[in-house]
Structure formats: C-alpha cells, structure tokens
Amino acid sequence: MDCCRRRIARLMRKAGLQGRHRRRRPLKTIPDPRAAARADLIVRDFAPAPDGLDTRRCGDVTYVPTEEGWLYLATVIDIASRRVVGWSTADHLRTELVAEALRSACHRRRPTRPVIFYSNHGCQYTSQQFATLAMHFGVRLSVGRTGQCWDSALAQSFFATIKRELLHTSPWPQRTATPHRDLRRHRGLVQLAPTDSSLGYRSPAECETALAV
Predict the structure, then answer these.
(1) Beta-carbon neighbour count of residue 198 at 10 Å?
(2) CA dist., res. 41 & res. 23, Å (int)
(3) Which residue from 145, 142, 190 is spatially nearest to 166, judged by alpha carbons?
(4) Which residue ranges does the record assign to the Integrase catalytic domain (predicted)?
(5) Which residue among 31, 46, 55, 208 has its CA within the 20 to 30 Å range from the CA of 115?
(6) What residue ranges define each of the domains in the chain, with the CATH number in brackets?
(7) What is the value of pTM for the model shown?
(8) What is the pLDDT of residues 169-203, one digit of tens each?
C-alpha cells in the first residue's frame, strides 16, 4: 500500500517513534595558509622500513561518536611494524590533541636516531606549537600531498578497524572511561593480531621481534 510522507510522519509521532539521523561529519583537516612549507619525506612509501624500527612514524586524527558528542582520537603508528606507539583522545581538535599523541609516543619509545613523523596538512600538525615539540624530541616533520586520501592510508586502516570492531552496535555512552578502556584493550589486541601482506601476515609484535634481532 502506498503511503505519503506526512502519513508516515503522523503514524510515527503517534507511536512515539523517531528516525535515526546520521550525524554530520566534522571537518578534521583544516590547512593553515600561513604554515611553513614542509617536504614529503615518505612519498607514500609505507613498506616496512629497511633501517628498522623507530625511524618513520605516521599520525592522523579520527572521530568516534559518543552519546555526549564527538570524541577525537589521534594516533602515532610506527611504519615499520604497524604498532600504535602513541595515542590521545579529547573532545576538541586543538593542537594539544596531536601534541599529546606525539609526546606519548616519544616517552613510550625513545629512539636513538632521528625519527620522521608523517602527517597531513591539518593546522594542528603544521602549527608552531607542534613544530617546537617535534624539535624537542628530535623529530623531523613531513607532510603528504593535499587532497590525497591514500597518503594517510596506513592510519586510516587502523581507524577503520577500530570503528568496525568497537562501534558496530552503538556509540559509546561517554567520552571518558569506556572509550579509554576499550581503546587500550583494542590497541593491545591489534599488536598481537596478524596484519596485511606487507608484513608477511605477521602481527606488529612479531614484526618488531624480528626487526630487533
């Protein structure tokens, strides 16, 4: 039986039903036209680094829904092993979010050699505050090309796994305790799970053990 839109709306109101709308996606990558130009030192080469661990890292930001609003997640991933070596969450997209993720990675893993950190052109990553922090830890900053989603494919693959496995039923109820607990647990499981063919279907933990020999 054909029904018009107004009839459906009236019947839904009468039954106390409401349609579920997709939230508007927040804009994450906002370039700063005043930011200093930086070279692309990775050139979309995400193959395991021949010179070992803690030499090339990449970072990006994603958003996950909660019943309190968006929660933003920033990660730092070692390109050689695909291990998440640093991360942070916040209810904002200010530079402190990505700075805390970098600080977490550098405190957890203290490289003895200079590290290249690869990101997009977002104003958080090109800010002077982030550049000062990177210089403090001896990190060389690198950026991908504008408008090329493939340049952040490694980080986006991890984000897709998180959203598929942790948020397949409903959003987190809060921005605080539950997301942090689930993310820590998921990050630990990911380090032990086999990954793609670029690592020979070894887990990040297995890959790091092999590279450390």
Answers:
(1) 14
(2) 36
(3) 190
(4) 46-212
(5) 31
(6) 52-156 (3.30.420.10)
(7) 0.74
(8) 566 666 665 566 666 665 655 565 556 666 777 77
